[in-house]
Amino acid sequence: MIQHVTHVFTDLEALAAELAAGAVAQAAEKSRAQLVQIYCAGADRAQLAAITSAIAGKLPSAAIVGATTTGEIAHGRLMTHHTVIGFTFFESSRVCVVAMDCDDGGEREVGAEIGRRIVRCASDTAGMLLLSTPLSIDVSALLEGLESTLGGLPVFGGGAGDYAAMNTSLVFAGARQFDSGAIAVAFSGSDLHVESRSYLGWRPLSRSMRITQADGLCVRRVDDRPAFDIYRRYLRIADDDRFFLNALEFPFLLEREAGLLARVPVAVDADGALQFVADIREGETFRIGYGDIDLVIERSQVLHDSMARFRPQVVFLYTCGCRRFLMQEDVDLETLPFEATAPTFGFYTYGEFFGSSSLTLLNSTMLAVGLREGPKPPPEPMKHGSTRAAPPGGHDPYANKHTRVVSRLLRFIDAVTSELEASIREVTALSATDRLTRLANRTRLDQALDEQVDLARRYGTPFSIILLDVDHFKQVNDAHGHLAGDEVLVGVARILEANTRSVDVVGRWGGEEFLVIAPSTDVDQAVLAAEKLRLALEGAEFPLIGRRTGSFGVAGYGAGDTAGALVSRADAALYAAKKAGRNRVEVGRET
After folding, report:
1. Can you list the positions of beta strands (E) in 277-421?
2. Can you give the pLDDT at residue 407?
3. pLDDT of 543 higher than 90
4. Residue 340: CB partners within 8 Å, gap ≥ 6?
5. What is 434-587's CATH number?
6. Residue 204 · residue 285 · CB < 8 Å
7. Which CB contacts under 8 angstroms, 24+ apart, belong to 233-241?
8. What Cα–Cα distance (Å) separates residue 294 from each residue in 251, 289, 291, 319, 388?
9. Which range (100-114, 405-419, 460-474) has the least confidence?
10. pLDDT-derived band of residue 534, with 50, 70 and 90 as boundaries?
11. DSSP state letters, 425-474
């Protein structure tokens, strides 16, 4: 069975008394392994050295690790500007510590080496705690290296903080202290069970935007404008020394394979670029998010229930500092209920580490980790009532309601934004669609051509176009009227849609001419595609009119081509097809 004792540090004398004769001393006698986690508000290196020395003197075999924070959690409650010490005693399990410093640029190899050493620690490792310094290293690269060698072990933990000063964070293992490095603790044992869960609780607020220029952990441009503009324009946040505190409630929300991820900007440079401590990719789309307190509390209750069913003997919490900022005096609503299940201890972070086969650096989340030795005990009777004590005279129905009002206002803004975006999408679709054929119109085709030319110039990817003209179309209008001609154009449009790929852009170029833009297609492949379309059109039967044919001009992108030059070659090839008797495919070759 695991035993845990939390000590809120006041002075070395009180700590010495706890180590000599308190609950720590009693639990240590029966343990096989001991883990001591120290989380502190400031990086007082001398005091940390004195604390670790005092603990090592009484618990010489203990693994002692820790980090600076942006808030401490003891007995499930938020502490601020304290040093809290968690003593965890394992009856049958083992712990193994790997500590490494890390230079800028060496994060991936350091992560890989940590993974290799952890794997060598034991064959029955059940999980791993990771602490690091995200202000000084690229933790995303560290996680990539760790993932490459760790072999799918569950990882949990957090980045060291410094109470939003954004200067220096610290991690330590025993007497070794690192302002640029990582600490890993492996938990192993055949009788050890680990349960880790996380949740976000942030909702999208703004319209969708695209990262158009990014460099490592720096986002330079969003929608081709300086990235900081979105915080100045939408939120009136200034570029000053309080930027991080003002922006942390409004992270970028990204859609990735792992789900919705938050990324919090920590600083702005002179050019209006945003600096992050977590990976962010050029080309990604995102929306500015906001913390929904009702959603946070709702999701936390699900997590409380899930952890209670696991029946842990200790709960470790690694939760983002921005949750403190968002929740204010209500922050204990999501942390304190764990204490009713098991002793609860942890810290507020600069980023949370979570995953197994795919390791993810999270922002703005809460990560709860339960540990248990031995079989799951039988369930206890259901407990009723809140873990929060009612104030004298009962709860005040008017207290702390401002956060709920703000939450509902933001939901209203979200709903209005969603309706506006839907209207914009509808108008955009109409402006880019030919009213008769429902294909892309000339404006959309011009845009798609320019996009393909840009891609071809940047990456060297081939593409081709097919220009089609319906043969003798004027005769249809003269003999049967313009309504019959319209039916032919609609029919040709459906044939083109049915015989092209989903990645192709198919549209009406003008009159009875149609254009197909075929990405990643060289000219020979485009000729085969055009021949397929020619045969499909030749074999179609139009009511009242009978069969129709078409003439096709094909051209492939060549180095230095403009969109106009490419279309001119396809148009010349189309003219050649008509001159050669129609109902045929010709190619406009480069001269």
Report:
1. 285-291, 314-320, 344-349, 352-355, 360-362, 366-373
2. 57
3. no
4. 308, 383, 387
5. 3.30.70.270
6. no
7. 234/206, 234/288, 235/288, 239/268, 239/272
8. 18, 15, 9, 17, 17
9. 405-419
10. very high
11. HHHHHHHTB-TTT-SB-HHHHHHHHHHHHHHHHHH---EEEEEEEETTHH
Sign of CA dihedral 343, 363, 136, 127: positive
Neighbours of 396 (CB within 10 A): 10
User: Confidence class of residue 115 from pLDDT cuts 50, 70 and 90?
Assistant: very high
Does the CA dihedral 380-381-387-392 come out positive or negative? negative
Q: With H, G, I as helix, E, B as strand and everything else as coil, classify residue 566.
A: helix
In this prediction, residues 96-120 reach a mean pLDDT of 95
Question: Which residues contact residue 280 at a Cβ distance below 8 angstroms, ignoring those fewer than 6 apart?
Answer: 211, 214, 217, 219, 252, 254, 263
pTM for this prediction: 0.70
Q: Which pLDDT value is given to residue 165?
A: 85
Measure the CA–CA gap between 213 and 282, rounded to whole angstroms.
6
Number of Cα atoms under 13 Å in the Cβ half of residue 399: 8
Residue written as token pair 């330590």: 172
Separation of alpha carbons 377 and 146, rounded Å: 34
Three-class DSSP category at 276:
strand
On average, the pLDDT of the chain sits at 90
Q: Give CA–CA dist 322/336, Å, rounded.
A: 17
Give the 3-state secondary structure of residue 143.
helix
How is residue 546 annotated by DSSP? Answer: B
Q: What is the DSSP secondary structure assignment for residue 163, as one 8-state letter?
A: T
The CA-to-CA distance between both ends of the chain, in Å, stands at 81
Question: Dihedral through CA 533, CA 537, CA 538, CA 540, nearest 10?
Answer: 140
Angle between helices 402-431 and 293-310 (to 10 degrees): 110
Exposed, middle or buried: residue 409 (CB in 10 Å: 0-12, 13-18, 19+)?
Answer: exposed
For residues 245 and 579, the model is more confident at 579
Tell me the percentage of the chain whose pLDDT exceeds 90. 70
